[in-house]
Amino acid sequence: MIVVSLINMKGGVAKTTLAVNFADCIARRHGAKVLLIDVDPQFNATQCLMTPRQYVDHLKTSGDTIVNVFDRNGRVTGSTVGTAALAKPKALEDIEVVTTGSFDLLPGNLELYRLEMAPGEGRENRLKSYLQKVKDVYDYVVIPSLSD
To answer: How far apart are CA 12 and CA 138, in angstroms?
Structure first.
């Protein structure tokens, strides 16, 4: 599996646009199995690939997002699409992605900004652990990185 991360600390330089188009191109033209992971708290790649209704329905049905990768503790979550609930952590191998046509998407989530990524807690290694779980499923993983 090849992981392609598009990194630039400045916003608005087309990281997301390039990531989505790259994922689509290698999936369609080369028949590769591709996963795009939206780690940006603004979740622009997700908004590009899912309609607002699809995204709201995904959240209402407890669909997985990038928060499920990083959140290893139960926590109370407020919601603009439902009532407050206790979010229980999921095993990495149980995280389900969304098929967007030619490739799969692990949607982003605004709640990502609430998770503290303090060193030593183990959260900083969860994405790497998730990639290990899916390495035999995908040929490519594309990650548009968050900016500041």
So the answer is: 28
